[in-house]
Amino acid sequence: MNVDNVKSQMRKGMLEYCILLLLHKGKAYSSNIIQKLYDAHLIVVEGTLYPLLNRLKNDGLLSYEWVESTQGPPRKYYKLTDNGEVFLKELEDAWDELNETVNQLKE
Amino acid sequence: MKKTLSVNLGGLIYQIDEDGFNLLDEYLNNIRLHFRKEQGVDEIMADMESRISDLFSEKLSPQKKVIVIADVKEVITRLGNPDQIAGEEEEENAKQSTSSTGSRNRQLYRDTDNKMIGGVAAGLAAWIDCDATWVRLIMVLFLIVPYTPILLVYIIAWIVIPPARTAAEKLNMHGEDVTIDNIGKTVTDGFNKVQQKANDYIDSGKPRSVIMKISDTIVAVVAFLLKALLVLVLIVCCPIIFVLSICLILLIVYAGLIAFGGSIEMFNLSWGPLQHFSPLLNISTSISAVFLVGIPLTAFAFVILRQFLHWHPMSNALKISLTIIWIISIIVFCISLSYIWAVYPLTL
After folding, report:
1. Are B77 and A36 in contact (CB under 8 A)?
2. Cα–chain center distance at B305
3. Least Cα separation, residue B68 to chain A (angstroms)
4. Which tens digits make up the pLDDT trace of B135-194?
5. If DSSP codes are grouped into helix, strand and coil, which group holds residue A76?
6. Chain A residues within an 8 Å CB radius of B48
7. How far is CA B181 from the centre of its chain?
8. CA of B47: which chain A residue's CA is closest?
9. Residue B238 forms beta bridges with which residues?
10. Chain B residues with CB inside 8 Å of A52's CB?
11. Which residues of A touch B (CB under 8 A)?
12. Beta partners for residue B89, in sequence order
């Protein structure tokens, strides 16, 4: 049993939840999302995020729009869809439940 | 002094050193290979390219106008090699694919990384999984033994066998599965090799590398001349090959007709010049003749067309079964022919 392995499994499990949480606050540039997750040590390499964002988009939880940028070409801004909001709500409930369980076990 | 290339990354133009470009190009190719099963791979690649573009533009300033290999390495560390990406996103899948390494299906390529002349021996060694030195030794032995066309065989092999260029081809050559882990390894190898090349260039004063360079140059010149000669021979032979193929095709048609005649005769109808033999003999002769001529002809046409149309190489199972059919048809043809000869010793 490798501790790093278990830790990375834990992070992996909540990655989708964190992305949806970030986007719940409002639309965001993909580079900014990645930067935030990277700073929070939720991901080790950025390459992981691109397929994940793409999958969330294909599943209809996210959508994106092109926004003109002052420096260079237009940028892709992601935002939550209505489906995404519902999905997030369910994940939030699940997270609270998990949190509660862990706290109970700790006592 | 270094050559630079200008590249378009996510809609912006960057000047990038050649070695940096090679590394980035290889990296992006391998990432694409890694994501090939993902839905919307083009979009993922476009996203990654625009991210790389963002990271590059942070690196540039009025004092620094060119992207160097160190910047590329930094970006790659940040975005992650395919094995790192795989390690984070689909550990279960990676485990599954590494456990299935038992089913090895090697493909014959020229190993240009370990070549002495054309990489044929090294590729062959990788294919049969032994040391390249033994293959080379055997080849040299054949060179000494008279009346063995090893040189011709080598040159044909050089032309016909494709070189292993991409990471996936190199892995196939060694019979390793094209998994994310392995591709990652190959990319890292390529990464080290780019570095190695740069170092070799700097250390070119060393006698060993000078000798290597001279031999490399000689080999390159000889290889070029040989290839040019072969192209010339091919051009000269073109009409002959053309006529020959037409003859062979006619032969096949003729053999088919005889087979047809033979089968008519089975129903006691009289046809054709060969009705003195048993119909079975006619059929066996002609069908084996069709295979005898048709299989090499098809293989030859396939090899030639593959050079131009970039078809996939034939699978090993197909090659082996075709060879077996061919050998069987030689035997059947010879036996049938000997029967016919026994009856008509002079004609045919």
Report:
1. no
2. 14
3. 21
4. 888 888 888 777 777 777 887 788 778 888 777 777 777 776 665 556 656 665 555 555
5. strand
6. 47, 50
7. 23
8. A50
9. none
10. 89
11. 8-9, 12, 30-31, 34, 43-48, 50-55, 58, 71-73, 75-76
12. none
Closest-approach residue (CA) in chain B for A42: B88
Of A50, A53, A67, which to mutate for an interface test with B (greatest number of B Cβ within 10 Å)?
A: A50
A78, β-bridge pairs: A28, A64
Residue of B nearest to A10 (CA): B88
Closest by CA to B71, choosing from B29, B15, B33, is B15
Q: What is the pLDDT of residue B236?
A: 78
* Interacting residues of A32 by C-beta distance below 8 A, sequence separation 6+: none
Q: Summarize pLDDT for A57-75 with one digit per residue, the tens.
A: 988 899 988 888 877 788 8
> What whole-number percentage of chain B has pLDDT above 90?
3
d(CA B218, CA B118): 12
The reply to whether B131 touches chain A by the CB within 8 Å rule is: no
Say yes or no: B74 contacts chain A, CB-CB below 8 A.
no
What is the CB neighbour count within 10 angstroms for residue A24?
Answer: 14
Q: Please give the Cα distance from A64 to A17 (Å, whole number).
A: 18
Rounded to two decimals, what is the model's pTM? 0.46
Written as one letter, the residue type at B105 is N
